[in-house]
Design goal:
Layout: H1 3-8, H2 12-41, H3 47-58, H4 61-71, H5 75-100, H6 102-121, H7 133-153, H8 182-210, H9 212-219, E1 272-277, E2 284-287, H10 288-292, E3 297-304, E4 315-324, H11 325-331, E5 345-350, E6 355-359, H12 360-363, E7 370-375, E8 378-379, E9 389-391, E10 405-411, E11 434-439, E12 449-458, E13 464-471, E14 477-478, E15 480-481, E16 491-499, E17 502-512, E18 535-540
Parallel strand pairs: 1-10
Antiparallel strand pairs: 1-2, 3-4, 4-7, 5-6, 5-10, 7-8, 7-9, 11-12, 12-16, 13-14, 13-17, 15-16, 17-18
Helix pairs in contact: 2-5, 2-7, 2-8, 3-5, 3-6, 5-6, 6-7, 7-8
């Protein structure tokens, strides 16, 4: 067989592999173009982000809880990687299919564009039909490239027919397939890969540059000295026991649990907060500077996520600086239900469309509920809500801690269900009395002798009165409590234990200032927070 003819022939398996490669390159091009277009529209319109957000919204609460429990704050990264894996596998399959049925393969690529566009325009924070452009234009680019590459795989250059004596078989004995334009395919594939990479880099760079104004606006913020500063942390509030959580949680270590696949980077210069709704006789809109120049308060407050399992890590204590929420509401003419106000629910909306409902009565009952602007002496980090977020002591975050807030509407619990309530969570959720053993860790192997058992306990807005520890099935023993900072913060505790050799189970329980003892009954996090007592198993050597 002549060299030219050999150049035209390809085995069936090789053709399928090249088809799969074509599908992968088409998907790469589609995502790159979508990234570039999203830079012009808005980053949240990217198909991966839009589909990811829609997936989060559609995921049943138990599955979300499982993801948070197993992946922690990396759950969003795992979701995005999962979406990319599904896209890659689908692209490979569509590429193979397109070798035999070109129109079906390209139609499949376009279908993915429809899915992305639908997800983008259906998001709560959608800017309208323009959000569909990244998915649509990306899919069109991918479909066009797939069509070009597959055409090279099925292109036959005219040449004299081979002699009848030549057996047309591939090297493995199977019949050889039609010829193909090898040089054309390699050139098109290499060009497409290079161009897609360049477009993707440009798109990513533009998306990054869009956040520079927001970053600059945060860097310019200088928090004024609060008119009502927090008292110095009580002497003895922090125990010097290795392994115990620090009294104040550093910003970088503070837990983050939310549904935002991309952290909103809001430019404080153009940010506005609107307060309106039922019973708001004087609606108002505030700029960041308006809030910054009001009377500020500073308080140490412990926050807890409702997704925190017994003994879990989603609790942290920080020093918050902000504006009293009750003062803002009163300025707008809002009265709590106990004083005849018609609205019993405050619905806070974030820039990414999240809605969180809080009871108006608790927000105006004298506790230090605030619109926070600072955290541990600096402007809020973007991950924790810059330029402003709500902080309410005594309530779980899903009914109080709206980050990236931009709108406050007064309404009623009967007339509106916010995001989490629609998904089976409770409308009202005060933080449950809880405690945790920080040291020794589960399955630790301490030496026999004196072992310090220590941890933290919390019952925000009620305060912790007592912590007790039990070893195996023995009696409850009272632990030493660190000094209390305020009733809105957690308390550290410790107890020396004369450990004997063998396996042991250590259990802790707390009692709050109302006399309520931490329940022994284990309950799920949904609908209003986990219940039960934290235990760890250790083996003493």
């Amino acid at each position: 067989m002549r060299d030219e003819e050999k150049d035209q022939r390809v085995r069936p398996g090789t053709r399928s592999a090249l088809g799969a490669l074509s599908g992968a390159l088409a998907a790469f091009a589609a995502l790159a173009v979508a990234e570039l277009v999203a830079a012009a529209v808005r980053p949240q319109s990217s198909p991966v982000i839009a589909v990811g957000g829609a997936s989060v919204d559609a995921t049943p609460a138990p599955v979300k809880d499982w993801a948070i429990r197993h992946f922690g704050t990396s759950d969003k990264l795992v979701l995005q990687l999962g979406i990319l894996v599904v896209l890659t596998v689908s692209a490979l399959a569509l590429g193979v299919l397109a070798v035999r049925f070109r129109r079906v393969g390209t139609a499949g690529v376009l279908l993915f564009g429809v899915v992305g566009a639908t997800a983008a325009i259906s998001r709560p924070d959608s800017a309208g039909v323009t959000d569909a452009l990244p998915s649509v234009l990306g899919a069109m680019a991918g479909a066009l490239l797939l069509n070009v590459l597959v055409s090279r795989l099925t292109a036959v250059r005219r040449s004299p027919a081979p002699p009848a004596s030549v057996t047309e078989e591939a090297g493995d004995g199977s019949p050889a397939c039609e010829g193909w334009d090898r040089r054309g395919f390699v050139l098109a594939a290499a060009s497409a890969a290079a161009a897609s990479a360049a477009v993707g880099v440009v798109g990513r760079s533009l998306n990054t540059s869009r956040g520079r104004d927001a970053v600059a606006s945060r860097e310019r913020v200088v928090l004024p000295a609060p008119r009502s500063p927090a008292q110095p942390v009580s002497r003895g509030a922090g125990l010097r026991v290795p392994g115990v959580s620090p009294f104040l949680t550093p910003n970088g270590a503070f837990y983050r649990v939310d549904t935002a696949l991309v952290v909103p980077e809001v430019d404080a210069t153009g940010w506005r907060l609107r307060i309106h709704g039922k019973g708001v006789s004087r609606p108002a809109t505030y700029s960041f500077d308006d809030l910054l120049h009001r009377e500020l308060i500073e308080r140490d407050i412990t926050l807890t996520c409702v997704s925190n399992e017994v003994g879990g890590p989603y609790v942290g204590n920080a020093r918050w600086t902000g504006v009293r929420l009750a003062d803002l509401l009163a300025e707008c003419g809002v009265r709590p239900p106990s004083r005849g106000g018609p609205g019993d629910q405050l619905v806070a909306r974030s820039v990414d469309g999240m809605t969180i409902g809080s009871p108006v009565e608790e927000l105006m009952d004298g506790r230090d509920a605030m619109l926070a602007l600072g955290m541990n002496g600096e402007p809020l980090p973007f991950e924790h809500g810059f330029p402003a977020r709500m902080v309410v002591p005594g309530l779980y975050g899903f009914v109080s801690a709206c980050k990236w807030i931009e709108d406050i509407e007064l309404t009623t619990f009967d007339s509106y269900d916010p995001y989490w309530v629609k998904r089976g969570w409770a409308r009202r959720a005060p933080v449950k009395t809880a405690s945790r053993i920080d040291t020794p860790k589960p399955f630790a192997r301490p030496k026999a002798g004196t072992v310090m058992i220590a941890g933290v306990a919390w019952a925000q807005h009620r305060g912790i009165d007592k912590v007790e520890v039990r070893v195996d099935d023995g009696p409850w023993q009272k632990a030493h409590l660190a000094a209390e900072d305020t009733r809105d913060t957690w308390r550290q505790w410790s107890m020396p234990w004369q450990a004997t050799r063998g396996g042991h189970t250590l259990t802790v329980r707390a009692t709050d200032r109302t006399g309520a003892v931490q329940t022994a009954r284990r309950t799920r996090t949904i609908p209003d927070g986990a219940g039960g007592r934290h235990s760890v198993v250790v083996t003493v050597d």
